[in-house]
Design goal:
Radius of gyration: 19 Å
Largest sheet: 2 strands, antiparallel
Number of strands: 4
Distance between the termini: 54 Å
Number of helices: 11
Helix content: over 70%
Structural class: mainly alpha
Length: 298
């Protein structure tokens, strides 16, 4: 096991962590504003992958254009779900929203199966994205570099938007206190809808990345990445965008190194490792690495 192999595993961990981080950001944005753990998020991820496949294989769009289509489609799904499923339940106990999110997830999954069947599909990207780039020590595909670069650009853009724009500051105010934000003239409904749109758009992009990386997609592909992204959000601190990013990379690197550095017979336990890590974090740091203790909003 040489240094090139270990470096290769670290790069794979960063790629996986980039995808987890993008999904986890959506989890944490929605929870930060409406205190809802949205388990339909994994199915938005799936929708993003199939939207990309349709854009590339059926319509023949260029890959950059397909990327824009995926972001807009994911955002639209988020807005529709918030408007139909979650807004009527606002103010209800948290468990109501939790159950509603599970129901939405199952409905989306079944809609996909009824529409395109449960058959897994091959996901092909343009040939130029499959080219290999030699970096001296390891060789990496162009699409892998693009995944990491795109994730970093999106995360920087999101942090800038939330920290320095008027709308982003209004979203932060909404997350702090509904009533005070409303008294300041902020449209609460619009801020919540925007959080769903941004979070769902990022999850859809992550679905595009996942299909590009692994070459196969299915209507059931969102369940496990969605749950692991939730674990990443908990590790980083649910409600914290920087925490979601840190949690995503910590989880991605830990998972890949667990599989890559231990004997092959242990690789089948990777999911047990991930969810075991969740239990440890909840026991040792209930608020995560960068989270803070928050009171339940009435």
């Amino acid at each position: 096991m040489g240094s090139a192999y270990i470096l290769s595993q670290i790069v794979n961990g960063v790629i996986l962590g980039s995808m987890y981080a993008l999904i986890a950001i959506g989890f944490t944005m929605i929870y930060g504003i409406v205190r809802l753990i949205n388990f339909a998020h994994g199915d938005i991820f799936t929708m993003g992958a199939f939207t990309t496949l349709a854009s590339l294989a059926l319509i023949g769009l260029p890959f950059p254009v397909a990327l824009v289509v995926v972001v807009l489609t994911g955002a639209l799904f988020g807005v529709v779900i918030e408007r139909i499923a979650f807004r009527p339940m606002r103010g209800a106990p948290q468990v109501t929203g939790f159950i509603a999110s599970l129901a939405v997830a199952i409905i989306l999954e079944n809609l996909l199966v009824m529409t395109i069947s449960a058959q897994p599909r091959v996901f092909l990207v343009p040939e130029y994205l499959n080219r290999l780039v030699a970096t001296g020590v390891i060789t990496i595909r162009v699409i892998d570099l693009a995944i990491v670069a795109l994730a970093i650009v999106l995360m920087i853009a999101l942090v800038f938007f939330v920290q320095f724009t008027k709308v982003g500051i209004a979203m932060r105010a909404t997350a702090e206190n509904y009533d005070v934000a409303r008294l300041m003239g902020i449209n609460i409904d619009r801020m919540i809808m925007l959080a769903f749109a941004i979070g769902s758009g990022l999850a859809a992009v992550s679905g595009l990345m996942w299909g590009s990386k692994y070459g196969q997609i299915s209507p059931f592909m969102g369940l496990l990445p969605g749950l692991k992204a939730f674990v990443a959000a908990v590790i980083g601190g649910v409600g914290s965008i920087p925490g979601a990013v840190v949690g995503g990379y910590v989880l991605g690197l830990s998972e890949v190194l667990f599989v890559g550095l231990l004997p092959p017979e242990y690789s089948g336990y990777r999911n047990a490792f991930v969810f075991g890590a969740l239990i440890v974090v909840l026991l040792v740091m209930p608020n995560g690495l960068l989270g803070r203790n928050t009171e339940t909003r009435a």
